[in-house]
């Protein structure tokens, strides 16, 4: 199910950190029922764009418009480094988030189960591995059933099977009508799951479209080949925006 109208729309976004310009003239749309993947080199501005779209910081210029239903929680968000308050179990943590957004606290177990953490329901959050903490973060992002879910590197730090599972969960959320945005460096999984891809380079979107469209446009046989062409330059150098730190 993909609506024609975008549910979230960023128009001509700029983002500066002090004197450092990190995003320039970025426009992007998210649609219900679709997984949109944001890919790009380290430091290209993915997290900055994701945080802008999730409403966590104001862009320096430009506009972000939400066209979805009025719900207690519009946008679920998985940060790049999720952290939870110690002293609570996984289940208690999700029940707490559900109580914050007026969601169904009894559904917390379903959310845990969806990310494969049902067996860890009674484990304290401080006793989770890094990958399990990320999975709990993904479960947290879906609490309250927001129509938009934004996941910053959901597969990072997960074993290959779990990574694939998390991308499948993203696809299931989209099948349920949610607009999903995720950032990732795993181009194989992106190619497998994403309906649309945005390629960010030096704070600008340099390519956008479905994987098939991008492959056609660039006469490339894989998303990796598309990425290489779209990014250009040295792939083994981090281009630091704003120059020396
Ligand atoms: N709070 C901040 N203050 C100053 N500069 C920042 C801040 N946060 C990010 N930056 C800079 O903005 C640029 C983009 O960072 P961002 O985290 O958005 O990139 P990214 O594409 O998500 O990178 P990665 O793939 O490594 O996670 C980088 O040059 C980074 O150093």
Architecture overview:
By secondary structure, the protein is of the alpha/beta class. The protein folds into 2 domains: 168 residues, Rossmann fold (3-Layer(aba) Sandwich), CATH 3.40.50; 64 residues. 32% of the residues lie in helices and 24% in strands. It has 8 helices and 9 strands. It has a 6-stranded mixed β-sheet with strand order 5-6-7-3-8-9, with helices on both faces. A hairpin with a 2-residue loop joins strand 8 and strand 9. Helix 2 packs across helix 3 and helix 3 crosses helix 4. The longest helix has 16 residues. The mean pLDDT is 92. The structure holds adenosine-5'-triphosphate. The site of adenosine-5'-triphosphate has 13 residues, from strand 2 and helix 1. Adenosine-5'-triphosphate (ATP) binds next to strand 2 and helix 1.
Jot down its keywords.
single chain; 245 residues; alpha/beta; Rossmann fold; 2 domains; six-stranded mixed sheet; three-stranded antiparallel sheet; binds adenosine-5'-triphosphate
Summarize the structure.
InterPro entries: AAA+_ATPase, ABC_transporter-like_ATP-bd, ABC_Transporter_VariousFunc, P-loop_NTPase. Residues 8-227 form the ABC transporter domain. The chain is an alpha/beta fold and 245 residues long.
CATH architecture of the largest domain: 3-Layer(aba) Sandwich
Number of distinct helices: 8
Rg measurement, Å: 18 Å
Structural class: alpha/beta
CATH domain fold name of the largest domain: Rossmann fold
Q: Could you tell me the number of beta strands?
A: 9
Could you state the order of secondary-structure elements as H and E?
EEEHEEHHHEHEHEEHH
**Biggest sheet character:** 6 strands, mixed
Q: How are strands sequenced across the largest beta sheet?
A: 5-6-7-3-8-9
CATH class of the largest domain: Alpha Beta
